[in-house]
Amino acid sequence: MPVSVGALASRLLTPVTAAVRTVARLGASRATWSSNGRAYVAARGVHVPGNEERAGLISRHLEHLGGVEWAEINAALGCVVVGHDPETIGVAELADAVEEAERFSGLADEPHAEAGTIHPANPGSAFGHALVIAANLTGLGYATVARALPVPALPESVPAMLTTADSAPQIRGPLEERLGRVGADLVLSLGSAAAHTFAQQPTSLLAESALQYCLLRESQASHRSWLRWDARFGTPPETRRSVPQDVQDRPGSLPFGPVERVGHSAVLAGPAAFAAALGMTRNVQRAQGFLVAAAPRAAQLGREAFAAQLGFGLAEKGTLVLDPRALRKLDRLDTVVVDAAALTTGRRAVQDLVPLHDDLDSAELWEWAHALIGQGESVETPAEGWSARPVRDRSTLPHQWRNGPTTPGGRFFSLDRGADTVAMLEVADEIDPLTDKLLAAARGVGTVRIAGRGSRLAERLGVEETVPGGTHLAGSVRALQAEGRGVAVVSPHGGAGLASADLGIGIAREKSPPWGADIFGGPGLGESCAVLGLSPLARTVSRRSAQFAAVASVSGAVLALLGPAYRSQGRAGVPVSAATVLAFGAGTWWGMQAAGRPMPQAAPRTPWHTMSPSTVLQLLSSSPDGLSDEEARNRGTEQAQRPERRQVSLVRATLEELESPLTPALVGGATLSAGIGAVTDAAVIGAVLGMNALIGAVQRLRADRALGKLLEASTIPVALRRDGRQVSVVENELVPGDVVELVSGDSVPADCRLLHADGLEVDESSLTGESQLVTKTEAATPAAAVAERRSMLYQGTAVAAGEARAVVVATGTDTEAGRTAGLEEGPARTSGVAARLQSLTKVTVPLCVGAGVVLLAADLLRGRALGVAVGRAVSLAVAAVPEGLPFVATAAELASAQRLSRRGALVRNSSTIEALGRAQALCFDKTGTLTEGQISLRYVSDGTRSLPVEESARVHRRVVGAALRASPAGENGEVLPHPTDRAVVEGAQELGVSPDEGMPGWWRLEELPFEPSRSYHAILGTSEQGQLLSVKGAPEVVLAQCTHRYADGERVPLDDAARQSIMDEMDRLARKGLRVLAVAERPASDRRDLDESRIRDLTLSGMVALADTIRPTAAESVAQLQQAGVQIVMVTGDHPSTAQAIAADLNVLNGHSVMTGPDLDALDDTQLSTVVGDVAVFARVTPEQKARIVRALQEIGRIVAVTGDGANDAPAIRLADIGIALGAQATPAARGAADLVVTEDRIETIVDALVEGRAMWASVRDALAILLGGNLGEIGYTVITGLVTPRGGMNARQLLLVNVLTDVLPAMAIAVRPPPQITPQMLLAEGPEASLGAALTRDIYRRGAITAGAATAAWFLGRMTGTARHASTVALVALISAQLGQTMAIRGRTPLVLGCALASVAALVVVVQLPGLSQFFGCTPLWPHGWGIALGAASAATLAGLAVQ
């Protein structure tokens, strides 16, 4: 929705006006603030150890005042916290009372704690930022007017020296000691604003205003976060109490990071360079240019912008940043100390259980073990005769435990029923669900140490190093700091340990604030994970910002040395200002990205499957009748407060598109252009860059909207119970504790624990990859594997048969599917075109720089002015900037995406197209991708011989007829709910078999439905021959009831040999990945009833074998992909035999091996990378293992595409270079993770996409040749003619004209055209090297040489027939025409290509022949002979291009 100017202005001014209003309300002379009915008043000396008694006098004095309910000293904040009645006594009066108490308690001469001055609720910081913004904006107005008048300006070296001082630790440190951090910031910022104002530097004033605004937003967001946390702490006074901590001084300062090193170097290098230049040149103005060049503002500004955005984002998500300096230290940390208490939940968990009697129900034992220990109840409290007690005598333990617990730190308990010990338990502290993520984030920072050596937690978590914790934690931190380390501490306990850390992250649990921390999070570890996980990015931001500053300083020094002395400061300031703006923009962008990362959530890991239904309901505070409406609303509100990934806006998507390897090169070219005065060139480059990003963003948002509509269309209502009545809600309104009702055909809307199941079978292939249905029951199941938890239903799976009532235990991202979808979040790899450009740039940029140096040397040897020589050299470098490249690449990708959309493929990211063209390995999921995900009748056996359905003999038709008679009939034409029944019925229809096959006149009388407990389906029917009992079901069950079989059409007894032969045949079919059902019949009496007692004395008719159906086009598609050189890898959670059978049918194996999940786990990453290229089938793999396979393929250099349709495929889809969600039944998780969504069940669309990728490659290759080859030709011509004469070559405007007429429109027309005269088979035969390898390099150099030759020849001929300007114009026309001629002669001419080329020719004629315009570009109108020379050279170049094409 568009935002009005007024609304935007209101949004920008809100933080400023809020800060001013807050300060205006202050009436006290000391730092005070209020929140939630409590006053916080700064008090002197209360933070100093030894002053506890005197501080107590202050609190007691306040408690005697009227209207004061209580007063507590908070030493960590350096204040007294007062609960009071604002109507009776105000904050100002409390401040006066504190001042009075300080005098009589002897604290009046003590200092204030710095923590109070920087507290987020203290308005001083926000007011300072608002004041500096006002000063900068006022200065901006003055500078603008002063430049127009003009008014003499202050030398630019003055603000540069202030900037250097602000960035230098050795100068800023003493200033902070004297004025405090807030005071030092204010003084330096106001001084900088004044200096920039009188130096008339509007760019610097704007940048500083923008930074201060970001800092103000950060401060305001932190204030709001404090108000939320203060309310969360509640009203108890003791939660505000904090005693002074004896924190020793840090042994040395925090080690320098990149920003500090640049600032330290600048304060030394700037004056040294000034002195050296002054001594060499005796010119103060030129020497001052070196002071300007040394200003390292870009380094500091980049980090500050990043930290401000990060602080704002963290505060908005609920994290409390008490000290904003903490976020500025993320780049200098290298050690993390984690308090052992932070990694446990405070509860105990059962690790293992050993029954002591064989006749005990293991599930019941697990239920009671969790009930007594898992809930945190006292283990000594018996319940219904059950109890758990610690084991004192180890000799009573099972032999495997007698040497001690298998879990470090574990303990043993006995599980008793009455006086009888029935099982032994191993119990250990429950690990916080986010522990693994926290340790992974900490390892990203550097060394990890666990504080607390007695718990053995480090050993349990695989952390090798420990340090003393508890009261010794502060000493441990200081010892590490003495080693030169930057230390972060994560702890739930406030005190000296957190206060000693360089970054202290406190975890607030149960309203117990960890005072002394810099950052508050909790009660979980999510905030700690998020903050520590950003340390690598913070280092990157600081390093890049420092690099911007260093490059700017070197460039500024060079510009200060060259050219007139009186403008040396201005020239030196151009790259410094550009780097400052660039660093601010990059830091802001990186900070927005960091702030936008989802906060890690502690997904519940409660073992619901091991608990009884009653225990589950008790833990969820629910009942069999469900939740009340009020309770459901309350839980829905809590759930809605959890942070979700926000929809990407157009602005954000555009900024993300700018994150390209090309952006720095283009921005550098624009900056260089502006530095030499070519502002028009810089504007064009910036416009092209912005337009390219906008086009990519629009394509992405359009695809995301289409995907959103697709997902919304698939939303179905859910039946559940509320207050005992049945209601219907949509899936995203469910909350834990809801009781849902499911029937056949329903999709499971959330993770649920079964309360009741009736004949329930579930298709879990979308989660586990298993194509077989899974029988479910409400009985507890202790199995660890998700696929074996029979008492659980998981989101995204489907009810195939039966009905159920279940309680919701997890929704959204907390479900198994949700956690699976979020397993892999990795950085994107550089795309093919960008990567190829980078490699080409490494060759072309040095070539351009070398050519510029040659041209500069030639001009200097001729005695030309230094400024003129430098200008020509820089113009030549600008010619090398391929400003049209990202535009034409994006246009080509967009055109391909549009063509694919007409074939049912939704491209979410346009760069996916070119990546598809480079795909070298394609990982297919089997179920639902290569197969249809629906079983069908594949083989029929008479017990001795099995034949495919299409080859069945008459005897096999009779088996199918018997199976059909034993199958249920759809009511009123409805589809049968059970897939096995559907497969038999549909298979019989394809064979033309009816129920009366071999049994004329048959019709059904009675039915015994399938149930998991009986494992068969029976039908009682009648025919002309009398009543007949037909049974179909599990082979082991049906065969056990058979006494006879058919042999050559005769009924014979079923002896042991025949029974074994039949079982062997069943086993052989099963090993082929088939699901086997036995079919048997017998004549029945005239009784019309049917029960289990009648299922006996059967005669085996035969067997039917079912399997998932391979998609009809799968084999052809796989063959085409293999022909294109793409390695096909099947990755499935199904059984190895099933996967191998499918792979054989599709010719995927080709001599490669099959590997299972356990085999994969036995290999480390290095071993897996060695063998992964030789494996064609991975079976029985988990979602984590699928992602690991993708990483292994990427490690060996493969460009990997992954297709799938289930939630279990989502991690691998996301991690892959190209993620593809296939089919109308693809789960939301798979679609959300994919780059390419195929909306129809057409696997051949993947082949179409690959063809489009290769086609786009060919188009972009031609466009690259046009762009880069043309630029090389311009460079070659300029160098050659520049060496011959000082008036040779082209000026900056002519170079811009060449690029516009030859690069943008013609190259774009080439890029968007579909490649004509090339068949899909030819495109499939191409590979990465064919498009972007040696062929591209050859095309670039060929085009460059031909273009340079044509222009140079035309220049010589023009010089022989006219003036120097005439020759330059002839050469310009020849150069442009030669490039356009080669473009029109290229393969694949289309009307659009020809039209764009002719339009460029027409524009060239107008520019050259129109006198005023011609003079503007440094040309002269040509006579016919001039046009003849130019067009003749261009024609020769075109013919030469055709000859070597």
Automatic annotation (TrEMBL):
The UniProt transmembrane annotation reads: 1392-1410, 1422-1444
Q: Does the keyword Cytoplasm apply?
A: no
The cross-references to InterPro entries, in alphabetical order and at most eight, read: ATPase_P-typ_cation-transptr_C (IPR006068), ATPase_P-typ_cation-transptr_N (IPR004014), ATPase_P-typ_cyto_dom_N (IPR023299), ATPase_P-typ_P_site (IPR018303), ATPase_P-typ_TM_dom_sf (IPR023298), ATPase_P-typ_transduc_dom_A_sf (IPR008250), ATPase_P-type_domA (IPR059000), HAD-like_sf (IPR036412)
Principal place of residence? membrane
- Keyword vocabulary terms for this entry: ATP-binding, Magnesium, Membrane, Metal-binding, Nucleotide-binding, Phosphoprotein, Translocase, Transmembrane, Transmembrane helix
Mind telling me which GO cellular component terms the entry cites? Answer: plasma membrane
Q: Which GO terms describe its molecular function?
A: ATP binding; ATP hydrolysis activity; metal ion binding; P-type calcium transporter activity
Q: Where is the Cation-transporting P-type ATPase N-terminal domain?
A: 607-678
NCBIfam families recorded for this chain? ATPase_P-type
Q: Know the name of this protein?
A: Cation-transporting ATPase I
Q: Which organism is it from?
A: Halopolyspora algeriensis
